[in-house]
């Protein structure tokens, strides 16, 4: 009997250790303070949806898990160095371990969502995660082919990528609410505002420089909102596009590009778009 208990205890200990190892990159990113936008969104929407606390907590936890897991993958795909002011997870744990951890958490998030015990939850989960990956895929494609999208194409991408988890949270909540209003227009607006503001801050905000490397979107070669405006508003001048193509780490070149964006009115245009989104 004592041998059985000992073996059982050892097995439990091994499983806990395995789980810890699998989740180390995920726990690493979770310990870094973030904006908690999605958690706050769930709480805010419950003012209208008024769902029971157990379901609310499960949806909030699952959404936050998926968000943090997606950040692990994003940082690899973007070849980032910093996340919220500290080294990204894959610089600590390596790319293979971090990818596996993120994918593992995607399914842990689904497992948690299934505890909601609603026949539609898998459909909502699948549809919104697919949208997230469609948006991310186009963002990567434009970057890697140095193909500047139109402003409309950019907006569709953002609604899919940034709005994917917004939609997952709210649609899941509506499964348990009498309020079946169509919140997609509002969620689309929130997603656009959130991403365009992030794009603006990456190139313009001094605070952002302390959390990520200076003008990181230029090093990544990312077609962010201000850069798209600068490129499309003056097709004869290819300086901004050429700088993006270089994936520069030279801060002097980055500062010159920021001056170009200021000169072309791209920051002012971005600010006006953000004001319009705020007014919606």
Describe what is shown at a glance.
The protein has a domain at 182-280. It contains 15 helices and two strands.
Give an overview of the whole structure.
- There is one protein chain.
- The chain contains 15 helices and two strands.
- With about 280 residues, it is mainly α.
- Helix 9 (about 185-205) runs antiparallel to helix 15 (about 265-280).
- The protein has helices at about 1-30, 35-50, 55-75, 90-95, 95-115, 120-145, 150-160, 165-175, 185-205, 205-210, 215-220, 225-235, 240-245, 250-265, 265-280; strands at about 80-85, 85.
- Strands 1-2 form a two-stranded antiparallel sheet.
- The mean pLDDT is about 90.
User: What is the spatial order of strands in the main beta sheet?
Assistant: 1-2
Q: For the terminal residues, how far apart are their CA atoms?
A: 68 Å
Secondary-structure-derived class: mainly alpha
User: What is the general shape?
Assistant: globular
Radius of gyration: 21 Å
Q: Can you give the helix content as a percent range? A: over 70%
> Overall mean pLDDT score?
92
What is the number of strand segments? 2
Q: Specify the number of helices.
A: 15
Secondary-structure element pattern, one letter each:
HHHEEHHHHHHHHHHHH
Low-confidence stretches: none
Largest sheet features = 2 strands, antiparallel
Percent of residues in beta strands: under 5%
């Amino acid at each position: 009997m004592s041998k059985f208990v000992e073996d059982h205890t050892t097995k439990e200990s091994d499983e806990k250790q395995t789980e810890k190892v699998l989740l180390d990159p995920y726990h690493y990113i979770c310990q870094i303070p973030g904006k908690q936008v999605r958690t706050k969104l769930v709480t805010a929407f419950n003012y209208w949806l008024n769902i029971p606390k157990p379901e609310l907590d499960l949806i909030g936890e699952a959404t936050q898990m998926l968000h943090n897991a997606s950040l692990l993958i994003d940082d690899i795909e973007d070849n980032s160095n910093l996340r919220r002011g500290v080294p990204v997870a894959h610089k600590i744990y390596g790319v293979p371990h971090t990818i596996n951890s993120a994918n593992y958490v995607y399914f842990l998030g689904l497992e948690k969502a299934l505890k909601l015990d609603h026949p539609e939850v898998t459909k909502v989960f699948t549809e919104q995660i697919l949208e997230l990956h469609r948006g991310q895929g186009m963002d990567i494609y434009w970057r890697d082919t140095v193909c500047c999208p139109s402003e409309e194409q950019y907006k569709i991408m953002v609604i899919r990528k940034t709005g994917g988890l917004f939609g997952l949270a709210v649609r899941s909540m509506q499964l348990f609410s009498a309020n079946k209003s169509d919140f997609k227009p509002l969620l689309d607006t929130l997603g656009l505002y959130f991403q365009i503001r992030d794009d603006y801050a990456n190139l313009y905000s001094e605070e952002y420089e302390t959390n990520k490397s200076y003008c990181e979107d230029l090093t990544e070669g990312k077609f962010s909102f201000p850069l798209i405006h600068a490129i499309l508003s003056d097709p004869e001048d290819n300086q901004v596009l050429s700088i993006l193509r270089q994936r520069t780490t030279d801060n002097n070149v980055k500062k010159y590009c920021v001056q170009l964006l200021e000169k072309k009115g791209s920051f002012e245009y971005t600010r006006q778009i953000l004001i319009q989104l705020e007014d919606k």
